[in-house]
Please model this.
Amino acid sequence: MTKPVNVLKEKQQEIRYRDRIIIALVAIFFFLGGAYIRFPSTIQVYHTPTLESAVTTKIDYIPPSTVYSFAVLLWERINYCQNDCAVDYLNNLNSSRPFLTERCYFDLKDHAVKNNQLYKNRARQLTLLDSTAFNPSKVIKLDNKKDTWVVTETFGFDETIHGTKLRNFNMKYPLQIVKHNVSDTYNPYNLQLDCFSGNPTRIDLN
Model:
């Protein structure tokens, strides 16, 4: 009787081992399946188009030139008022809202509302003074803040009322840019303007 009992115990033990292996394999399958579902179908790569050589880049790396272009073009767009800054500026803020942090949007909006009468009937345009090739020194990545850059650039600031020149001076802006994952439908750059890292500086023309 001892031998059949031992054989039965060995069979039961084999079955338990087999069940454990099956459970482990099923768990691994579900783990890998979940990881596959969460894995992004596309990976954003930021680089300047070139046919001269192949481009090797880290995943999710954003080159300074992209940050710079984003900051300059967005700031020019927000501040362009064709006829009446009391209306146009607020419209620009609303249309650019996906490209602004919540804090920056409300800061700029509050400032515009408080100065609404001052902006009335004013046309405005910011013009980039230095139209030469991109200079990397104008973009500084902050070490103490993750995915945050400061773009420093000087613009010509022109305002007119009914065609009459009102103000003409230069403004130096320290534009703060942050990486923020938002829907690609509304913001394909995943970058946002977080207003300023310091106070803008007015440079009067002599």
User: Anything to note?
Assistant: The chain has a mean pLDDT of 83. Residues 2-38 form the longest helix (37 residues). The radius of gyration is 29 Å.
